[in-house]
Amino acid sequence: MTTTDAASGAPQKTPAKDPWDLPDVSGLVVGVLGGTGDQGRGLAYRLARAGQKVIIGSRAVERAETAARELGLGIEGAENADCARRSDVVIVAVPWEGHAKTLETLREVLAGKLVIDCVNPLGFDKKGAYALKPEEGSAAEQAAALLPEARVTAAFHHLSAVLLQDESVEEIDTDVMVLGESRADTDLVQALAARIPGMRGIFAGRLRNAHQVESLVANLISVNRRYKAHAGLRVTDV
After folding, report:
1. pLDDT tens figures, 51-85
2. Which residues in the chain show pLDDT less than 70?
3. In this structure, are strands 151-154 and 174-180 parallel, antiparallel, or unpaired?
4. Which of 83, 111, 160, 231 is 20 to 30 A away from residue 171, measured at CA?
5. Terminal-residue alpha carbon distance, the chain
6. Cβ contact 56:35 at 8 Å
7. CB 217, CB 155: distance < 8 Å
8. Is 216 exposed, middle or buried (0-12, 13-18, 19+ CB in 10 A)?
9. Other CB atoms within 10 Å distance of the CB of residue 27
């Protein structure tokens, strides 16, 4: 993009935005749908430990409140719709089997919200984990189809729930692949990931690229089983 210098009339180039110039997200309220499951609890714990205001959502308010009490750190529990209503950013961490049904029931309350889908459509058999491909292309694209008035992004797929919930682990050594249609929205998600010590959020393309990011979890499960590890990802040279 170019602009014109008022004094000389010469065209001036607008400097490119620094990709690491991310917004302040410390004041945002983060809701975690599926926050009573391992991944949801882990994300809620890490974000709250970093100083974020967090609300756990569940179909049963009692389960959400119990999980919130167990985690502490000022985390609150609420029924899914109330959690979504009270949050600025909503992380979807529900099981794949309940993904579509959960989002369908929350379509109105999630309108206008920044939604981060971290669901991995996977199947399991005697050979181990394998990727499933939803009709829409990915879990994130399914979310975008079901929530046309929400701002859907995808992130937090490759995190170990064990490490996230381990209070003795000070830093989570991993990068978070962030996908979405809006630069402003993916910047917010990257900044949220960076709130957790050891993490970076890395822009990884638009939602049409979400399937391979979600599918890679099947490979990480194989890595972890073979090496008895909690492997994550690091992107080099950025």
Report:
1. 999 999 999 999 999 999 999 999 999 999 999 99
2. 1-11, 14
3. antiparallel
4. 83
5. 24
6. yes
7. no
8. middle
9. 9
